[in-house]
């Protein structure tokens, strides 16, 4: 289960970054620095070159160049994407529950999932009751 499946839940800034450098590299950036601010340098002075190198280490030189051209001189707030990450986790729990209950009772499966995901059994049951969050198309909105 990957964030590509829940891209519609990503904040605008995360979607913009993904449009610029691609979703896989955007996810690396979010995993590394999500929830922080990062000054995107213009890569002209030594301090800026150090920040550029740190960015290039995470997303690669080509993506760092794209981000420098687009955001150079700005302080970028890198989102945590908590809603999308939670949805990925919940989908994984539901899929693993389906797999686990082929061989074991539901109570056993929930106990194992609670331990694996470090959450209470009650919260696992709540996750199991929820449906996947899907994006609505214009046709669905009409009905």
Automatic annotation (TrEMBL):
Pfam families, alphabetized? Mor
InterPro entries attached here?
Answer: Homeodomain-like_sf (IPR009057), Mor_transcription_activator (IPR014875)
The Mor transcription activator domain, residue ranges: 47-137
Protein name (Swiss-Prot/TrEMBL): Putative bacteriophage transcriptional regulator
